[in-house]
Amino acid sequence: xxxxxxxxxxxxxxxxxxxxLRQVTVSCQAxxxxxxxxxxxxxxxTLLRCIAGLDNPTGGTIxxxxxxxxxxxxxxxxxxxxxxxxxxxxxxxVAANIEFPLVMSKVPRxxxxxxxxxxxxxLRLTSHLEKKPAQLSGGQKxxxxxxRALIRRPSVLLMDEPLSNLDAALRVDMRTELxxxxxxxxxxxxxxxxxxxxxxxLGDRVAVLNEGQLQQQATPREVYARPANRFxxxxxGAMNLLDGTVQDGYFRTPDGSPIVELRAPxxxxxxxxxxxPEDLRAADTSASHPHxxxxxxxxxxxLLGSEELAHITLASGHKLKARLPVGxxxxxxxxxxxxxxxxxxxxxxxxxxxL
Amino acid sequence: xxxxxxxHHATGVLSPGRAxxxxxxxxxxxxxxxxxxxxDIPRHILLALGAIVMLAPFAWMVFSSFKPDDEVYxxxxxxxxxxxxxxxxxxxxxxxxxxxxxxxxxxxxxFLGQVLLAVPAAxxxxxxxxxxxxxxxxxxxxxxxxxxxxxxxxxxxxxxKAGLLDNRLSMISPFLASAFGVFLLRQFFLGIPQNxxxxxxxxxxxxxTTVWRIVLPMARPALTAFAVFSIVSHWNDYFxxxxxxxxxxxxxxxxxxxxxxxxxxxxxAAQMAAATLAVLPLVVGFLLAQRHFVRGLVLSNTPD
Lengths: 355, 304
Hints:
The complex is a heterodimer. Chain A is of the alpha+beta class. Chain A has eight helices and 21 strands. In chain A, strands 6-7-8-3-9-10 form a six-stranded mixed sheet, sandwiched between helices. Chain B has a domain of 204 residues: MetI-like (MetI-like fold), CATH 1.10.3720.10. The interface between A and B is medium-sized, with 25 and 19 residues. Chain A: GO terms for molecular function: ATP binding.
């Protein structure tokens, strides 16, 4: 029996025209954290709601721990969910909020109290148990939401952008806290986010969605190093994408002037080349790796702290961004180079071409 | 305090959690009220005049009820020798205790029944999709526009034919289904975040459990407002009791004291005492529930 979650060809339509999910196939093994990432409206929350049983898929199959749960009642799925805006019961105390799922499944009072105390210790809520949600900070509210989800000891924890209502500093702390919690619990987690950092740091694997379609599912390292298509490349890591053509072993601008010489020549085609901002560096003629050099003009320099983000317009008219150590470039003309093996090439449909 | 709050939300739509603090830049109610106090003096004078006009007969009633016989028709507002004699005569002449018990039973049972029926109906109309839900809502709205007087005669005939006149059942049952209550609560339920209801569903709560254990505790402001409307109108109701009652057995306070006023038409002080007794519970109840009541109407809510 396969543990974890298998979604096969899951389709969800709202009304005749709105296709929220188009044949999405993703899987998450037991004990693994899968992050679903994509821009708003990409269908990631819909997929999560289908897994939770709050929405019914129009087509496809959802298996949880090997059993077909596509249309099963939410309570039978041994899943629990944490909501973006906490969704706590405002009239109940923290303790009563956490306890509620146990009351519903008729767990005896003595055992309930013990389990609430245990969860409260785990989530550092012990001193807040008698408060009402309105008296808590955002981070505490979300810990209550997590506590209410964990109390039934679900085999799958579903999280819908649990950090996006928190302010930036708290979000970073909570992210670390969640990461430690996931490791401690060993529960299967499906984590929806629009934040690429959360997706990459928390996920054992990442599934990228756009317009209801799965773009790529792979480990964070793989998704980042070898994005399967243009969308994934630009969404995770804000890759520079330059449109042009491939001809005679060169990647060329649309009007045909060569920009980059490719390692492995391809047949002539329109294409798109991708360069991560952090892979660009000041041109260095003595570099040992095969590399290409680009020449352009600095439009704008943004200080990020330890680095600067340089907005550059190439002679060909293409625009790109480069993350460079502070002081590497000043205004005016710059020469930047990038290792050839760091280049990404996408065909006319936006699909990755291995160089 | 209440004036300031109310004036700000006079046009507010009934829904929880929507009302914003008056000033997004962080200035709270305090400064708004101070500003109002400074610039709105003419308005407050006008409102005070209105209040005097409204309260004067009420004060006159209360003061007269404490006057001895020889002072009742004097022009003093305040009694020179205050006395409880008039109250004594009321209790001696009519079973005031029974009227009160009847009134408490009738208004209490009406309100209880209205809540039991209106809460599930309002939840269904607000949050569930079913065939005919729009029609049902339309009918509820239509029913809110029908005054009691329109349906009184057919209802009376119904009760008369069934032999149910002149008892508590005939006093209570016509009011158990409150279209106004359904509509008021529906508007409130519309504002409850969907996620909270989803969470309840995932936690294993049925619709029925969700309504009573999750939604109802959240609706306290709206319920309090509805309680005041319902209890005041049925406590004071004279029209329907006067149709169905013919004896003292099931008489409520207004019906009882009107019978008293007819029989003791010369004893003005006693009539005023009976009237004071009739409104006393409402005034006390309103003062106790005032904070909730205003909140229910204003429909501000604690930030979530």
